[in-house]
Amino acid sequence: MKIQDIFTVAKLIALSVIIIAGGVYLVSGLAFEGGPVLHTNTFATPFDFKGQSFDVAALSLSFYNGLFAYAGWNYLNMVTQELQDPYKNLPRAIWIGLPLVTVIYVLANCAYFIVLTPNEIISSLAVAVSFGKYTFGSVNWLIPIFVALSTFGGVNGTLFTSARLFFAGADEGQLPQIFACIHAQKFTPVPALLLQCVISVFVLTTGSIYELITYVSFVLWVSTGVAVAALLRLRVTQPDLPRPIRVHPILPVTYIICSIFLVGCSIYADHVSTGIGTLITLTGVPAYYLFARPSKSPPSNTVRKVTAYLQKIMNVIPQEKTEALL
User: Fold this and answer.
1) Contact 210/64 with Cβ under 8 angstroms?
2) Which residues are CB-contacts of 112 (< 8 A; sequence separation ≥ 6)?
3) Cα end-to-end distance, the chain, whole Å
4) Alpha-carbon gap, residue 260 to 281, rounded angstroms
């Protein structure tokens, strides 16, 4: 978390510098002959994209890429066990974090569009680097460093939170129990982190970044949409369950509608990538029933020996609430 704090601050500083640089570039074209003139020529034809489509299907896929940049809003839920007073701090973090990220990212994109034309943005492999060439002059080498800091911080945050999915699944008996173990001294879920590392490296070899975004976004919106729908159903079928954190029903209903729109349009626009994403997800069904389905019978001696061996190698132990594996 100390690493995450440092790189989050570095990211915010980098984005603030970009926003300020965009604002300075905007007003640097002021000329007092005939009145002030701003650098707004890039907004003259905002939808003049070469070879781009603006139909509903294309827009839904563009939402995937845009929303991927805002990813992280759902990650905090995965680490509620590590929050102090989560019923109070989880909503507070969401209500502070979401508006802050939205404002900063929108202003940063405004800065990009002030300096770069739409076609320059589309053709650029790294928009921030292209932006720096126009605004930072001889010190534009700072931009790749800012991008690297931002990327590292994003990856670290994803690792910190996403690995808890494997950890929680194993703790519920849906994965081998070794993944529910934590380091004896650091209390980090080392086996779950290593599993995520292996899966991530494998996924990186399967296609381009845009294909991966489509795979992940499709699965994300399907799974979270179903989860939110399940919460609504529980409100009707089990209204007396304890609910320390409550929201107005209009929010989950709106989310479900947006999920249906994004998923439906993406299936129509790119049925190959969405089909692959569906197949990847469905591989978990036979894997669950073959290897991880909770059983009332105790694990076999072979499983116990393998688990004990892996525990010794990684110096990990079960949580106190979990039965000993040795």
Assistant:
1) no
2) 18, 22, 121, 127, 128, 131
3) 31
4) 18
Q: Which two tokens stand for residue 156?
A: 């670290």
Find, among 235, 228, 22, the residue nearest to 132 by Cα. Answer: 22
DSSP state of 300: P
Looking up tokens 């000329």 gives: 31
> Which amino acid belongs to residue 156?
N
State phi, psi for 93 to the nearest 5 degrees. -65, -40
Tell me the H-state helices in 209-249.
209-237
Burial 276-298 (b: 16+ CB within 10 A, else e): bbeeeeeeeeeeeeeebeeeeee
State how far the Cα of 125 lies from the Cα of 205, in Å rounded to an integer: 19
- Cα angle 172, 174, 179; round to 5: 80
**Which tokens hold the place of 319?**
């949580």
Secondary structure percentages of the chain, helix, strand, coil, to 5: 70, 0, 25
CA–CA gap between residue 120 and residue 118 (Å, rounded): 5
Mean pLDDT by 10 residues, the chain (326 residues): 85 89 78 54 68 69 78 76 80 86 90 84 82 82 84 83 85 84 88 89 76 78 89 89 85 90 80 80 80 65 86 87 45
The single residue listed with the structure tokens 């209204």 is: 239
- Cβ atoms 155, 149 nearer than 8 A: no
pTM across the whole model: 0.75
Of residues 172, 160, 114, 154, the one with CA closest to residue 292: 172
The residue assigned the tokens 């994004």 is: 262
Assess contact for 178 and 310: CB atoms under 8 A.
yes
